[in-house]
Write a structure and sequence with these properties.
about 625 residues, 5-stranded mixed beta sheet, 6-stranded mixed beta sheet
Amino acid sequence: MKQLQLLTLGLVAVVGLALAGPRDNSLVVGASQEPRVLGDFWAFVSSAAIASEIENFLWAGLEYIDINGNDQAYLATEVPTTENGRVTVTDLGEGKKRIDIHYTLRDDIYWSDGVPITSEDVQFFYEVGKYPGAPVQDPTYWNRIKLTVQDDKNFTVTFEPAYFYDLVGSAIGLAPAHVMKGEWEKTKAEIAKLDPEKDAAKITELFQGFVSKFSTPNALNNGSLAFSGPFTLKKWVAGSNLEMVRNPKFFITPPGGADKYVQKVTYRFITDTNALLVAILGGGIDATSSVALTFDQARAPQLTRRAQGRFDIWAVPGVIWEHAEVNKFTNVQQVKDLMLDNPKTRQAILYAMNRQGLVDAFFDGLQPVADTWVHFADPNANPNVKKYPYDPEKAKQLLAELGWKDLDGDGYLERKTEDGRTVKFEIEYVTTAGNRIRERTQVFFQNDLKKVGIKVKINNAPSSVVFSNDFFSKAYDGSWKGLFEFAWLFGIVDDAGVFTCKDYITGETFVPTPENNYSGVNFGWCNEEFDQLRAKAMIEFDAAKRKEYWQRMQEIWAEELPALPFYWRSNPLVVKKGLVNFVSSTYFGSFGYPTTNAWLIGWAENGAQQVFDQAKYGINALEQ
């Protein structure tokens, strides 16, 4: 009873806070996860999505990716391009290039403590990340990058060898040197006492300890960091909430003046998503984070019924691609028997799968059916690739052309092999056991495939098993023999490595076999034209030319179907009526965060002007 009383009091407090939103120009965002740290500029400790979302309020980069997936200048005076002379491309021969990217910082940018933001802050970021032993997440980036500082406002970032995605978003970060450099010098002195080979774990601890002195809740509450974004952190109560207020030193003035927009933002961390749903229903939340309710909860009748006139509920297509890989290694007998290496077989299977029917039945049509591995919102997407609508008759036709017939009248297809055997079309279908949606998907498609004479054998295991190296990577050895459903995450800087057979730049092979110790995730599909186009696209810095390569690659992929595309997952976003510019799109800020233009978030009632319309970038779940 005591616990119930405490919960009730908590909800009352939240309701009061949220209802004051438009009146005191505040915003309460509900999230189901809490960051471990904030301001870990090098991701030494953590790189959680919820941290990135909140950090959009607190820190600015050189550039940002806008709602349409395009680069925009932020702290830099302009986005470097070959056209404006800020990007120089040098051909190194042998399919490699170097790029030099020249930035100029704005004159009106300051840290929240009034200290100007200069090239020294970029130099400091570079020095720490480049330092031997730094536990960076992407060593390739740090191995390829070089920084040359000209003066307080100008510097050049060099990548060698360079790839096209080096020009997507900020080429380099920055951190407040005037605040952190003293502690960094102490950390360097400690690292110098250690042996990089024998003391690697201790060196990692020192790097993480250095960051933690500035980025934990206690440190931030004690004023450990300066901020460059539209807000500053006021208070972080670990396990409960985080409060931010508008930064008077921020250089962008929104339309009509900053006083017309949100002045205070509070993130409430409610890890139990059912409790979060209750808080939304009670009026205690103005908007949900990108890490909040599950898709099913956002469509729950108790929310949709009570949302009318109070909230908008959006389904925003994300970059998580649900699909089925196909084992195409013909040394596996079942693969050879079913001719899974033949594109016609894979085409027939996809024609037989009612993907739109599945999306309509399971998700009210809110998860878009995928055509290829490239998201339809990607600037390089090819809308004219071959499509595979539900067409069981077409599937039967293709299967008949391959020699499949119902020889014994049991409704399932058979064929005679070259060595005189009779084989049935029985295909294994694997996914992660316990994932309710995927298990329902298997049954749905099992019924579809039965209609064209294909028998499906469901064979699931826990994610810890199916994603282990002994199972996931060893399709060549027959660890899985047919279809394997899971999801890939494809951002705006996807390099098509998942479907590359041979990298013509590095010489690597991405087909996992015993010869390369099962490295790579291309399960037996090789197309030389695709690989050659991919190699050209990787080092092509003319966006129009790269788009031509990418579009042809999609045409090849859609014809050959190395994998079976199902749908793009949509992210739910609940937003109170009257709140403007808290919007999300597939590539906003690269990963769809609704906080990318945090300085524009406000209440229409208080004079905030709507700049972005969520209806252009998502589906209103209440209208379905």
